[in-house]
Amino acid sequence: MTTIHLSSTGFLINSVSIQFPISINTLKESLNDNYRTTKRKSNTIFTWDDLGLLAYSKNGECIESLTLELQLDTYSFCPKHKFSGAFYFNDQEITNYYKTNKEERVQLFKDDDSGALVLNTICAWFSVNEEETIKAIEVSAYQPYVRWQGIPDDKYSIKPLDEEEITFVDFGFKLSIIEELMYMKGLLEPKFDIYEFADWYRERKIDIDEEGYEPIAEVVQYFKDLPIPKRLATEITDIYQDGGNDIYMNLSPFSGGGEDDWDMETAVDAKQFPNLKKATLCYAKDCVYDEFEKMGIDAESL
Q: How many CA atoms lie within 13 A of 156 on its CB side?
């Protein structure tokens, strides 16, 4: 019977000490060499049919994760038998009592309902089916989640321009220009994504699910500070406000477009855009329409 131990002293498979990434020769020593190989585009899978085990490798040599299959599946690479061995976490046999005793499972995970047990540099992740019985246990090296990992450090840093920039009087007008240049024409980068920005931002954790019903202060400030090159002014031929515009969905994704925080209060900034001929508005004070018309710009309500 295959016996796997994860404890403070290490990770053992049948008394053989294991470290990730695991060489296939180490698994042969700790298990057996009675496995089959499935090569796919993104990885190679080693399957021990008799033991109910899967091993995943990106390069076909080093194993990044080991999966104990406790429920048969239909994929061709899946084992033909379920894992019938034992998995111990800190000397507690987890395989069976996790799938049969929900109260003990809750106590085991305590405040962590992610389905993972972490010890030292190893993580055991539990997959559960609709009946709340265990489907599989995946064991791999533990990689702590870093919110901003993979996003360049300067992705949303405001950088001063080395060229002349547009000075705006009205923030609502500026937002309409950003919509055109950033989201419609792709001329203003980076294209702002509120979810990526929240992951990138390090001063505090921005909880979009909780805060996304109102304008998020740091996002508003980002767009206030964002410089727009004056050379792009000629690219604007019309502006179109709609509650579903990308700019508004990134300012307040769950507001439903019902905010008046970015109403245009004046159209004076239009003088800086020589090719602007039309404005379709839904966030604007009444006086703004008259100002546009006086400048020869067709203005209508959405």
A: 20
Kindly write down the DSSP assignment for every residue of 83-97, as one continuous string.
--SEEEETTEEHHHH
Distance in angstroms (rounded) separating the CA atoms of residues 161 and 188: 12
- Distance separating alpha carbons of residues 21 and 141, to the nearest angstrom: 8
Say how far apart CA 10 and CA 90 lie, in whole Å.
10
Of the candidates 31, 36, 33, the residue with the CA atom closest to the CA atom of residue 1: 31
CA angle 115, 116, 117 (to 5 degrees): 135
Partners of 5 in beta bridges? 12, 88
Report yes or no: 236 and 184 within 8 Å, Cβ to Cβ.
Answer: no
Q: In residues, how long is the chain?
A: 302
What is the rounded distance in angstroms from the CA atom of residue 292 to the CA atom of residue 299?
6
Distance CA 134, CA 87 (A): 13
Q: Is the pTM of this model over 0.70?
A: no
Q: What is the DSSP letter of 283?
A: S
H-assigned helices in 110-193: 171-178
pLDDT value at position 228?
A: 97
Compute the C-alpha angle 20/24/29, nearest 5°.
Answer: 100
Identify the residue whose tokens are 């498979």.
Answer: 13
Q: β-strand 116-119 against 92-93: which pairing, if any? A: unpaired
Burial degree of 6 (CB within 10 A; 0-12, 13-18, 19+)? buried
Q: Where are the alpha helices (DSSP H) in the chain?
A: 24-30, 94-100, 102-109, 171-178, 194-200, 208-211, 217-225, 246-251, 286-294
Q: Name the pLDDT band for 259 (thresholds 50, 70, 90).
A: low
**Each residue of 261-272: pLDDT tens digit?**
789 999 999 999
Q: Mind spelling out the 3-state secondary structure of 193-217?
A: CHHHHHHHCCCCCCCHHHHCCCCCH
The tens digit of pLDDT for each residue in 242-258 reads 988 999 999 998 876 55
- Report the DSSP pairing between strands 134-141 and 62-63: unpaired
